[in-house]
Amino acid sequence: MDHRILLDFLKIAERLKCNTRHSWTSSGRHESVAEHTYRLCVFAWLVRKEFPECDMERVMQMCLFHDLGEAMTGDIPCFEKEDIHRRTEAEALEHLTEFLQEPERSELQGLFREIEENQTNEAHLVHALDKMEAVIQHNEASIRTWIPLEYDLQMTYGQEQVMYHPYLKELRNMIGQDSLEKIREEKVPAKENAGYQVKKGVGNMDPRRVVELLHATDWAKDRSEEKILRAMEHSFPYAVFDSSGYMAGYARVMTDEVTTYYLMDVVIDEKYRKKGLSRMLMEAILEDYGHLYGILHTENAEWLYQKYGFQIKNAGPEMVMERPGVSSNVKKGREI
Fold first, then answer.
1. What torsion, rounded to 10 degrees, do the Cα atoms 76, 82, 87, 92 define?
2. What is the per-residue pLDDT across 11-39, written as a single tens digit (0 to 9) for each?
3. Residue 246 in contact with residue 208, Cβ under 8 Å?
4. Continuous segment of H or E residues that includes residue 171
5. How many helices (H) and strands (E) does the chain have?
6. Contact, 182 vs 143, CB < 8 A?
């Protein structure tokens, strides 16, 4: 390779040492993109024998270059990244390859294309490891560096990418358990960030919004307005509101207030997700009824309820989860 081209390309790659990511390190500073890239390569090397079907040299190359575009664009956290950011990064990668001559130019373009299309075993593995490494890094950082939406994101990020392989699924579950333990040990209270507030009781509900929220769900989209409102009136409803009084989330509890409660209809407005609002709802409900035996049904949100001590009782299309109550001398439910 031409000496000047080599040095110019290395100069661009050096920016990955300077550009920081959203994640924090265990020592209390933001990690650089280069540091994430390095450990992703170590991650791939450590699991290489679990994937005999993969060309691990190809995997290592994709790990090495997967975030090179961020030398030009900087890092955009996953919860802020939009299509315009993806297009900008794609353009940056195209620009980067222009620095090189053949055959390196075509080789690097092929790696970027394979990562983007995500159709090969090697690309599947890189995407799964990339997302898990970020979750691991959050587990290693102080929980005080987490923003509210990350309490949920720690349980969901990368789940889709690992589903194709048993080893990755088991590893992701273990990482998720580490997240749960970190949350429980720190006992960080839910934050009323940016003016969000949980209210309880029928009189505090906005009936129109309750109907809108439930009609946006898969499980209640065909439920009549009359049934939704009657169910609310015969339950203990909770809602989370933003600073303007707009209802962004809803849940309700059916209970005898002595032995058992049944958690139902937990929903957060799609525009308000990843802000920690489901956590606010759950902690308000458990403050009132966590001393009782709890039960719920869910189709695909077991990750959320496991954070609060619910365990799977019966798996299936309508999963049953339960949570044992604590000692009866713990605070009872409050009056509405």
1. -10
2. 999 999 999 998 999 988 899 999 999 99
3. no
4. helix 166-186
5. 14, 9
6. yes
